[in-house]
Amino acid sequence: MSQIQERGSTHVYRVNKISKEEMESMVARCVYEHPPFCSAACPLKLDARAFLEAAAAGNFKKALQLYEKIAPFPLILSAGCEAPCEAKCRLNEIGDGVAIREVERAVARFGGASKLGGIFRSKKRKSTAVLGSGLFALLLAGELEKKAYPVTVLCEQDSYESFLRACAPFLEDEAFASELKRLKGKDIQFEFNCTLDAAFYTEKQGSFDVLCASDEVRTRLFPDLEPIPELMFCEAERIVTGRTDGVLGAAFGAKKAALTVDRLAQNLDPRNTRGQEGAVESQLYTERQKASPASP
Ligand code: SF4
Predict the structure, then answer these.
(1) d(CA 67, CA 71)
(2) Residue 212 near residue 261 (C-beta atoms within 8 A)
């Protein structure tokens, strides 16, 4: 404790002097800014509190806008996400937790027409291409379109329908029709009937600034290359790709891959300034005294 006396005054201030380390440890104890447990468990970082609040108020349009920030294809994500968020809901401790994924499904279905891709939005200069099909390829194309990159999908299928069917075979008819419409409305170019072999890859290397590929295409073209999972990147071939598991895994992989594309397009190391990716631990104080058990 040290004392400071103001000039011309008789008042003496007592000041606690603490080290930088002590101050940092005190600041780290503050949990005020920690995310709610459900959002913390979501690797895509849905603002679940705002999303559920909008849905509970009946404002599905706003809820869909929030959901589309993490899901370029909302009916696909909500149909297949493994929902690790639900197990973390603190309401599980007094009854049933919130069935977040069911709310997402309802919002994706009844939230109205989404804002279509920015055909009139100004585009970034660097061009990108995604080779192949599958969930990761589809979601990556969606993420790149969201980031305003000109993106072209080079696939073996002969139409939008067969491409989408190859990417999301689990979609029911109604959801398939909606996502097909959404896919066609996005500013994503397609080259169908491609032969995705080494000669084709070499030819396309000169046409695009950043090339991405499904893991299936990468394995076919470069069986000995191992992508770096945290970056979804093969450094030796400078190709954005990687293995993913499940719907949420593909969505998270696509997010990481889109960030890598972003860094490469700016001639930066893809390891640069990525921020905190994926699920995190939360210690947010959650008041449960006034909560009562409810059905999901
Ligand atoms: S259901 Fe999936 S996408 Fe939605 S908040 Fe949970 S983990 Fe995230």
Answers:
(1) 6
(2) yes
pLDDT for residue 249 is more than 90? yes
Domains of the chain: 37-110 (1.10.1060.10), 128-265 (3.50.50.60)
CA dist 170 and 138 (Å) reads 14
| Residue identifier of the C-alpha nearest atom 1 of ligand 1 | 83
| d(CA 45, ligand 1 centre) in Å | 8
pTM of the predicted model as reported, rounded to 2 decimal places: 0.89
Report the separation in Å between the CA atom of 63 and the middle of ligand 1, taken as the mean of its atom positions.
Answer: 13
Q: For residues 203 and 116, give the distance between their C-alpha atoms in angstroms, rounded to a whole number.
A: 32
Category of 8 on φ-ψ map: left (φ > 0), alpha (ψ -120 to 50) or beta: left
Please give the distance, rounded to the nearest whole angstrom, from the Cα atom of residue 117 to the centre of ligand 1.
23
Quick one: which atom of ligand 1 is closest to the CA of 51? 5
